[in-house]
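Hi Y.,

Following your request, here is the sequence exactly as I used it, all 157 residues.
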Amino acid sequence: MQFKIGYGCDTHRMVEGRKLILGGVEIPFEKGLLGHSDADALTHAVIDALLGAAAMGDIGAHFPDTNPQYKGADSIELLKQTKALLKDYQIGNIDAVIIIQKPKMLPHVPKMRETLAEALGISVDCVSVKAKTAEGMGDIGRSELVETRCVALLYQA
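Below is the corresponding structure, written out as tokens. Let me know if you'd prefer a different format.
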């Protein structure tokens, strides 16, 4: 069996007038994430980790922000398209972290895990999502920015 590990990360500014969507879950908050698509930074990091493990480039290569087709795109749909690209691989697991000051993520993590697992066609037990704060420091600590990171394990039988 051949194993491959990929790493993905994403960063988006928090702004008023946008929805806050992470891991395919809309989270009530006065700010959302700025981006060409729905700006779901968590799902974007997962996509990059999966593509990286398969040595297939990154999210920008497959879903460029210069393409009007992806304006306002649902990132979970992009994740499903990414899964289809990985036809030669099985997903072992996903381990992701959201670095955000507010709002609290813990109440939303179970739904994020379910949504990501369903989109990938894997067990929720294979998807980990954690959240950390920036302890009030920097752009993240001022709720101006969200950062996400993810590692993914792929294997070929």
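The chain has one domain: 2-156.

Thanks again,
Q.
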